[in-house]
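Batch manifest, entry 17 of 40.
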Amino acid sequence: MDRIDRNILRVLMQDGQTTNAKLAKTIGLSESATLERVRRLEQSGVIRGYTALVEPERVDRGLEILMTFSLKNQGADEVRRFIDAMQSMVEVLSCAQTLGRFDFVAHVAVRDVAALQHFIDEKILSLGSINHMESLTILKMVKRWQPPLPLDEE
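Output type: structure tokens
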């Protein structure tokens, strides 16, 4: 990845809806060369997709929680089942497998406390693989991840 690719990424992270013509003009390449580079970045998996950033509270998901999980054991099958479950739950905004005190940390967004209780009872506890779980209620999101991802200069 060279300087031009990094510039393309910077522009697209700021505005994923920018036109190819505008992108080409901004980075100083022809439209065809720009489109070829963008397609290469997409095909190689550097660009995974384009999406809208949505504020959870504005779509009736105003209760956000950080949840930590320790599994009963670290067998490959149990870990895979937990990961698959996390990936399938719409309430889970993100989930990371971690080293240290907890096995996983998840960022969850639900409507209210009743929805959280339902989520825990029906989806989390039913997995049967949780040894320990803690929930931290988010009072205020100080910084939410959003583009641009810092890219080192070449």
